[in-house]
C-alpha cells in the first residue's frame, strides 16, 4: 500500500479541522481539547496535536490529510508533520483580519521547511463579513502566481476544489521539470 | 549572591525593571552576540555603560558627538593617554574646549545608546555583581531608568511582531516581478539601500545582516519595510521557491509519480 500526505495548516480557528472532516472517509482522528485561555474562546475546543483524515484512492494508494494545531505554542509539531508532504494548504479565516499576519508567518515557516507546492484558501467566504479575496491577497502579500482560492470548509465541493488546485499545481510543477 | 541568567528567559527590560524597583547598585555584564556590554547602576539609576569592543573613552565619545574634532581627538589620544576621563574632562573644561554640559550630555547619550543596543539582543548571558562600582577613572552619571524601560518594552513588542512577520533569517530575498517599478525612484533610507544591494536569492537574510552590519532586529525592520512596499519577497536560499522532490512520493519513478497524482485527481473529482 502506497501512502502520500497533504498538510492543512493555518492559524487558530481558521477551519482546518472542518476542512479535513468534510472530505475524510473516516471520522477525523482529532485531538481536540477544551479551550481554557479566555482570549482564545471564540470556539469551544481546539486541536492540540493534529487532525488526521483519510481518502482511499484505490487498492494501492491512500491519501492522508494532516491538520496542524493552530495555536502557536504547538508549532514544534509543524516540522514533523511537514516531513515528506506532497504539498500543503494554508487556511485563512476571511472574517478575522487580525489572523492574517500569523497566516503569513505560518506560510513562510512551511515554505522554509519544504519547497513543496502549496495553495492558500480564504475560508468562511460564505460569512457576510468575509473579506474579498483580492483584498486578502494584498493584505497577505501573496504573489499573483500563488493560488489563492475562496473556500467554505464545510462545503464538500469547495474543499474538493482546493485539493484539486493543489494537485494541479503539483502536476504542473512536475511537467515543468521540477522533479 | 550574584544574579545570573540568559536574556532568553529574563529580558533586558525585566532586568532594568528589577534594578529600578530594588534601587540596586552594581555592575551588569551582558555577553551578547559577538559583543560584551558593561553597565553600572547606582541606587537604581544608570551610572555608566560601555561596549567592550568600542572606544568608550571620554575623548572618543566627545569626538563622536562632534564636540571635539578628529585632530583634537588624535592629539588627546597621544598626549593625554595616561589621564583619567575625570582629569581629561577638567582639563578640557578649563581650556574652554567644551563645557560641563557638553560632557554630561555626550556621556548620557552614549550610555543610553549602549542600553538601546542591548534591547535588540535576544540571546546572551548576563551577570549582575551587587555593589560593584564603575571603574574609578570613568565619569559616572545618574540617569533615570523609567523612560528607558518603557522604550525597551516598546522595542520588545516590535521585535515580537517582526519575528512573526519574518520568522527565519535563513531565507533569502528576491525583487518582486513588478514591471514599471524602478527602485531608483523609491525613497530608501541608507540602511535600506545597504540591504537592497545584497538582495539576491543566493544570500540569506542572515548573511545580508552580517554584510550590512545590522543586528537581527535591524535587518528584520528593514526587510519588513521592503516587504510592505512590495519591493521584495522572501524565497528559499539558492533554490526555486517550489520544487518536486522524491521524498514527497512513495516511489522514485517519475512516471509512477505522475500517475499517482493523476489517480488522486480522479479520485477527488469523483467524490
Automatic annotation (TrEMBL), chain A:
What are the coiled-coil residue ranges? none
Is GTP-binding one of the keywords UniProt gives this record? yes
Q: Which domain of life is it from?
A: Bacteria
Extract the GO molecular function terms from the UniProt entry: GTP binding; hydrolase activity
Keywords associated with the record: GTP-binding, Hydrolase, Nucleotide-binding
Q: Which SUPFAM superfamilies does the record associate with it?
A: P-loop containing nucleoside triphosphate hydrolases
The entry sums up its family as follows: Belongs to the GPN-loop GTPase family.
Record's PANTHER family? ATP/GTP-BINDING PROTEIN-RELATED (PTHR42708), GLIDING MOTILITY PROTEIN MGLA (PTHR42708:SF1)
Protein name, as recorded? GTP-binding protein
From TrEMBL, chain B:
- Ranges for domain PatA-like N-terminal: 4-160
Protein origin, superkingdom:
Bacteria
- What InterPro entries does the record point to? PatA-like_N
What is the designated name of this protein?
A: PatA-like N-terminal domain-containing protein
